[in-house]
Amino acid sequence: MSSMEQVAQALVAPGKGILAADESTGTIEKRFQAIQLANTEEHRRDYRELLFTTGGFGEFISGVILYDETIRQKAKDGTPLVKILEKAGSIPGIKVDMGAHALPGSSQEKMTEGLDGLRGRLKEYYAMGARFAKWRAVITIGSGIPSCKCIEVNARSLALYAALCQEANIVPIVEPEVLMDADNTLERCFEVTEWTLTEVFAELSRLDVKLEQMLLKPNMVIAGKLCKKQNTPAEVAKATIECFRRTVPAAVPGIVFLSGGQSSPVATANLNAINASGPHPWPLSFSYGRALQDEAIKAWKGDPKLVAAGQKAFHARAKLNSAARYGKYSTALEKELVGL
User: Fold this and answer.
1) Cα–Cα dist 338/314, whole Å
2) What would the mean pLDDT of 80-93 be, rounded to a whole number?
3) CA pair distance 202, 303, nearest whole angstrom
């Protein structure tokens, strides 16, 4: 078994999932504004250090997606954050795309940039300790969209990125996200997700990407947040598994869902329902950002005296998502650990 296969399998180890801590400087500013905290490099470092030094971190978190700034940072005591993760038994990863920008000729659709110079950046990140990477493509549902152009351009970029990662001995996480921001139904999300994944795996095949050495980070099949009919976890699970069985080869070592704007409890409940409806051809895990961090950042409030409170909140949510990996999450467990 290659080292990349070992890393891919370790990232979806039973009971564990990935923390997406790769917020750009602009994105984390929105999180800090909510707690009235200045968006400085020191505060960003303090917040990531709070998360990474949580007791029992490696018990539930198999890997962490870092931002370019974060992978270079050191903790207050001078220890590189990468070393803190490694000591906790968690694998460092890195976001390598340069964000979603306007698709030429379209005011509504996006294409992800960042292929220029990627080969060199991957080599540098590997030397820093990164063993997996992430690239996010954004697919928007709306009137007359997505277009064939949007899906094809993003699928080709994802495949090129994945091929370059494997060349650099880095496991690519392939993230085609069908956004849940509109008023579309679950059924429409199913159609677009099936179309997107079919195109992505066709492009991966054309570029000889080894499926055993990658992970898929998709959206769940779910109604848009503006849709009047919101679905139960059981409905989300049924549609998601049906869609993935049609499109995702069994050779893929695991699927790590993005939360995509779902609240923390909803993202956990949906993951739980998906796993409880098994067995499935692949391990089904999580790669959550907000849905792992929201409660922690609110408990911390940027106050050094509240670091322990932030860590307690983070540990509780990580533990709940770990339970969801086994289909053993419940509202009773939510109340016990979070008090909701």
Assistant:
1) 10
2) 97
3) 49
Contacts of 299 (CB under 8 A, 6+ apart): 306, 309, 310, 312, 313
Residue whose tokens read 């069985």: 245
Residue 102 has φ and ψ, to the nearest 5°, of -60, 130
DSSP 77-122: TS-BHHHHHHHTT-EEEEE----EEEPTT-SS-EEE---TTHHHHH
Domain map (residue ranges) of the chain: 3-337
Cis peptide upstream of residue 172 (ω within 30 degrees of 0): no
Nearest CA-CA partner of 80 in 153, 141, 130: 130
Q: Are 258 and 274 in contact (CB under 8 A)?
A: no
Query: Which residues form the catalytic set?
Result: 175, 217
The architecture CATH gives domain 3-337: Alpha-Beta Barrel (3.20)
The residues near 97 (Cβ < 8 Å, ≥ 6 apart) are 112, 113, 114, 134, 135, 136, 161
First CA to last CA across the chain, in angstroms? 44
Amino acid residing at 328: K
Two structure tokens written together for 306: 């509240």
**Sign of the CA dihedral running 25, 29, 35, 38:** positive
Q: Which two three-digit tokens encode residue 160?
A: 């090129």
Instruction: Give the predicted TM-score (pTM) of the model.
Output: 0.97
Q: Where are the alpha helices (DSSP H) in the chain?
A: 3-11, 25-34, 41-52, 57-60, 68-71, 81-87, 118-128, 148-167, 186-206, 233-247, 264-276, 290-300, 307-325, 331-337
Nearest alpha carbon to residue 205 among 262, 263, 240, 163: 163
DSSP designation for 142: B
pLDDT tens-digit map of 25-54 = 999 999 999 999 999 999 999 999 999 999
- Chain CA centroid to CA 89, Å: 19
Give the span between the Cα atoms of 242 and 298, in whole angstroms: 36
